[in-house]
Design goal:
Distance between the termini: 55 Å
Strand content: 25-35%
Length: about 450
């Protein structure tokens, strides 16, 4: 297989969307396996994930050697999907876009907005349908036929049969799919090596179990190489019609001049949830971004701003608490005016304690793990003016957690008004909440963040 050259400037690269009838069919296994196998074959592969997911892009990064990126019309706006794709695929010759949930499942009550099908249509990309055949035979054909007929604007160009049990089973399933006219591009058998540990919010992020994640990516690549016609996948990707779009650029809405303030970005195994464009936007606004690990490090030298993203602090609460030097440093710096944006895990870290373990005590609240999952898109209105948001500012964000916070006083300024009520806590230079906001739709926010850091 010869790797072609990247697409001409302005034209979207060859691309294919990996979708499924429902969650659990094996989209991630197939998408990651395709990325890694095509890379091994000499292609430069760009990986994308539909929706707000943070975990799958980590595996995409391992498979492609490039940053994993998200395509989410709800958070970024549908007009930015092709430009964001163009930006993320720069220098690649093929892109694999992993879908979310079932092909036609989008935000509730929106007739499929932000679904995999929606993104496929925005990119004019062909779709390969991954079908879990473990509990069916000829009936798989009816499933494929139904998905093909449901929306004629979605072009399903092939099927990959996953979790096939035997040669006899494969023959029966193929016979069921044949009348649909949709070609079978691959057949995958069950493989225990592909099992990746999971927890209450899904798969464990790759940064937390690097060795096992790498093994899973390698196993997926081998499985796909053996069971999928990679040339047929490339042919499908090449069948995507020409689609020109100016690439999104992480530019700042304000003039960048003067000193580049250091903005510390929490990373490591605890704070692994952030969009690739977050750092790009901060740098474009004039910041020097330095990543640090709150489990072991102090704040980087000359820190002038702090970004605390999402992750799993509830599973590392004791270790986070044990870094007393950093906790004290963060509290002291914030008390002296350090600007901070904290999302989800960051909110918990700023509380007095998390599940009984002392945190930074910047905010008068305690945090606890619960059994209740809070999940979904939110339309939020800024409840309080801060250095980053003006009161009344409307944004779209996403929540994904099983924790709750309990304020110790009612005299607190909330971050947002959600349909369910006020959420988060603010100080004039601190914005802390559960809500994840994709800054590509609000580029003034990182610009204001950097300005606040520069003027501290």
């Amino acid at each position: 297989m010869t790797a072609p050259n990247p697409a001409p400037k302005g034209r979207l690269v060859s691309r294919v969307v990996v979708a499924a009838p429902a969650s659990g069919a094996g989209k991630t296994t197939v998408a990651v396996g395709l990325m890694a196998a095509l890379r091994k074959a000499g292609h430069v592969v760009a990986g994308f994930k539909v929706g707000p997911d943070y975990i799958d892009p980590g595996f995409h990064a391992l498979a492609t050697g490039r940053p994993g990126r998200n395509l989410d019309p709800m958070l970024s706006g549908e007009e930015r999907i092709a430009p964001l794709f163009q930006h993320g695929a720069a220098g690649a010759d093929v892109a694999i876009v992993e879908g979310v949930m079932g092909l036609y499942d989008g935000a509730l009550g929106t007739e499929g907005f932000s679904s995999t099908a929606h993104v496929a249509k925005l990119l004019r990309a062909p779709v390969v349908l991954v079908v879990d055949a473990s509990a069916a035979g000829r009936s798989v054909g009816a499933v494929v036929q139904g998905f093909v007929a449901y929306d004629p604007e979605v072009r399903i160009v092939g099927v990959i049969l996953n979790k096939v049990g035997s040669d006899r089973h494969e023959t029966e399933v193929r016979a069921g799919v044949a009348p649909t006219g949709v070609p079978v591009l691959g057949v995958l058998r069950r493989d225990a090596r592909l099992t990746v540990p999971s927890r209450h919010l899904g798969l464990i992020p790759a940064p937390e179990q690097q060795s096992q994640a790498e093994q899973a990516v390698t196993a997926a690549a081998e499985l796909v190489h053996q069971g999928v016609d990679l040339d047929a996948i490339i042919t499908a990707a090449h069948s995507a019609p020409h689609h020109t779009s100016a690439a999104w650029t992480p530019s700042s809405p304000t003039e960048v001049r003067g000193v580049r303030p250091v903005i510390a970005v929490a990373g490591g195994p605890v704070f692994s949830f952030r969009y690739t464009e977050t750092v790009e936007l901060l740098e474009a606004a004039g910041a020097e971004v330095v990543t640090f690990d709150p489990l072991a490090d102090r704040l980087p030298e000359a820190t002038a701003g702090l970004y605390l993203g999402g992750g799993f602090p509830e599973l590392h609460a004791e270790a986070l608490s044990a870094n007393v030097e950093l906790r004290d440093q963060v509290a002291a710096e914030i008390a002296s005016g350090l600007p901070v944006i904290a999302e989800c895990a960051g909110l918990l870290y700023l509380c007095r304690e998390l599940d009984g373990h002392p945190m930074t005590a910047v905010l008068p609240a305690t945090a606890q793990m619960t059994s209740r999952l809070t999940l979904g898109y939110r339309t939020a209105v800024a409840a309080t003016s801060t250095a980053f948001y003006d009161e009344g500012r409307r944004v779209r964000g996403h929540e994904f957690h099983r924790t709750t916070i309990t304020p110790s006083t009612k005299e607190l300024a909330p971050a947002w008004y959600l349909p369910s009520g006020p959420e988060g806590i603010t100080l004039p230079h601190v914005h802390a909440s559960y809500l994840h906001v994709h800054w590509t739709a609000t580029p003034d926010v990182p610009a204001r963040f950097v300005a606040a850091a520069r003027n501290r």
